[in-house]
Amino acid sequence: MDPKHLFYDERHDTWCSYCGCNWSAGIEATRDHIPPRCFIDGPVEQGLQWPVVKVCRPCNSTLAGYENLLACVAAATPFGDGVSQSDKATKMMERSSKLKDRVHWIWDQWPGDHSKYDDVLRGVLKIARGHAAYWLNEPVLDEPDFAFAGAVSFVSEEYLKSFASFEDSMGVYPEIGSRAFFMTGESASQPGWIEIKKGQYEYLITWSPAVRVRVAMYCRYLLDVTWA
Ligand SMILES: [Zn+2]
Q1: Would 4 be classed as within a structural domain?
Q2: Given this model, what pLDDT does residue 80 score?
Q3: 1 found inside a domain
């Protein structure tokens, strides 16, 4: 099955995955990689189909700064030396002292849920909306019912179990023709986490009873967004 040739409702292709604006209003459409390339260091596996969503140019440019911030916050070591685990994040912070200061400030202030900071949250929602739009073929534009961004070491065992589990989506099927539908059909025995790059960026999307996007970065920084 070639995921590029889906027979989903093409009307969904007319909306920006992030803000829901419609191309017919004369707004320029562009494509955005999800995850953004700044989240991944080094080469990816050959043949990887990097997920791409259609978005409006204003969203693409205004949200870029928030996604850079999130990439750097996630890559920053929260303990002690503040050394980034990502060459790309390190370079971004070398180029911008403002970005670097913000990353350090966030980790210094509160190591728990970083999504309480509006700039981090915007980056988180961009990623989550991008994954949701790609897999479900429709934009998820509402405010989320739950959002979290933070290190594994600051969450409970119980939460971590729920985070890693695919079970909450079994038994209910997504829209026929969507990528999520094919994912169910093709790999029902091994549903679950999708690797963009092992140990750097893995994600899981589930759609019932709620749309939930989970991302594990560097196996230690978690993003989690739910729309009930
Ligand atoms: Zn937009």
Answers
A1: no
A2: 46
A3: no
